[in-house]
Amino acid sequence: MFCSNAQAETYQDKIKVKVFIAAMFEIGENSGDKAGEFQHWYNQYFTDSKPIKVKGAHSPVYCNSEGVCGSVLGMGKVGSSASMQAITLSPKFDFSKSYFVLSGVAGTPPSKGTIGDVSWASWLVDYDLGHRWKAEEDEKGAPTFTPRKGYEDIRRYQLNSELLKWNLHLSQSVALKDSKEASAYRMKYPDAAARRSPAITVGTHMTGDTFFHGPGLSKQAQYIAELYNADDYIITEMEAAAIAQVLNRTVGIERIMSLRGAVNFDQGNPNETTLQHLDPAPGETAGGFAETVENIVLVGSKTVDYIVDNWDVWEKGVPKFKEE
């Protein structure tokens, strides 16, 4: 039987978490103002929930009566993973059978994605954990990154392929929202993927604390993905591989999902420099942020609801996917 927040705070019972939703930042309040990464999740699942404070976590945890919990972990590798560890080790929760949705906004290369896309990760890869040097200090055109030995077990994580099949199946009929501003902005790019309407994609999510940008570093991200025998790099973000390391040490990674919405391209269009793209003139931003953060929840909630509605099966582990 699911215990109440009041009961959990007495430590007599632990909240049995079925699905934990992790966002990285919220712009203001959890409801009623401009939505960041958590607000739509909060409005869908936690409006009647009381905050549960966890020592060492960035923000309170919220849980509903169905066993769905969520929190804002903080941005970047250290902040997000520190929060995740504090929450998973807290005596207030039972994560022994939990599924995790790592959710947030991201960037995408224009050759593979567009503003408003929602992407499920097949791999999580750390952009760092290696050696880098300036291009002029090596042969022209040579890669400027090499992995550092000793990080083989933490630099990449392949997510559960069976769970990924379920994610793609459950979200295939979701109609993604778009904006006029994003639609116009896409036309600045010649790539077919960049100019299309938002879609659900799948591939490697590349985690880096540095906001890497420009065609050169985008190419390097793809090089790293190939070097690690992962799928094509499709999303740039700042947290997932670090959170996966924490979960791998505490509860395992078989039930982790990474879900990201693209709100920017990882490089400028052919008519602007990288620095110009990083510092756009008024009115020259991509647009589509509000629609993208809503798209993330439209997609992710399909999986969350399905797991909860079929918990008698899913609590035992990810069932083998069979096309319905």
UniProtKB/TrEMBL annotation:
<dbReference type="InterPro" id="IPR009486">
    <property type="entry name" value="Pur_nuclsid_perm"/>
</dbReference>
<protein>
    <submittedName>
        <fullName>Purine nucleoside permease</fullName>
    </submittedName>
</protein>
<dbReference type="Pfam" id="PF06516">
    <property type="entry name" value="NUP"/>
</dbReference>
<dbReference type="InterPro" id="IPR035994">
    <property type="entry name" value="Nucleoside_phosphorylase_sf"/>
</dbReference>
